[in-house]
Amino acid sequence: MSTVADKLAKKSSHKTSAKQVRLRLVYVDFWSAVKLSFLAAIAIAVVTVVSFVLVFFVLQATNVIARADEFFGNFTDGSILLSNFVSLPQVLAFSAIVAILNLIVVTVLGAVLAGIYNLAVKVTGGLLVGFTSN
Questions:
Q1: What digits encode the pLDDT tens for the residues 15-40?
Q2: CB contact at 8 A, 56 and 88
Q3: What is the DSSP string of 7-50?
Q4: 77 — phi, psi (to 5°)?
Q5: Which residue from 50, 85, 105, 118 has the least number of CB within 10 angstroms?
Q6: β-pair partners for 44
Q7: Cβ neighbours for 131, distance < 8 A, ≥ 6 positions apart
Q8: What radius of gyration, in Å, describes the C-alpha atoms of the chain?
Q9: Are 133 and 19 in contact (CB under 8 A)?
């Protein structure tokens, strides 16, 4: 038979378990989503510009552009050269345009997704998230 003292001894020997809390995410603030998506878009824009420039330098170092000039020169008698269209200022301008368009699209997409989530919460009840304390 177990006594009350045995039960208390068993309870004291166990470590306290972590408290678990379950919360439901029922609203995403619109402006917070816009700011966060804008910051993510800036990071993506920087990566885009740097990657375009690095690819251009690799193509230039491996003489791919010069070989493409020779290839197109055989067909067009040298009137159309790829090096006339692909230079560092043109690559920078193109990558800046792509980065700006990407910045706009990602920012708007973050705002739209926040709005869609806020509308979907009315139907689904929200996202259930669990937290524990250590």
A1: 656 788 888 989 999 999 999 999 99
A2: yes
A3: HHHHHHHSPPPPPEEEEEE----HHHHHHHHHHHHHHHHHHHHH
A4: 60, 35
A5: 85
A6: none
A7: 20, 21, 22, 23
A8: 29
A9: yes
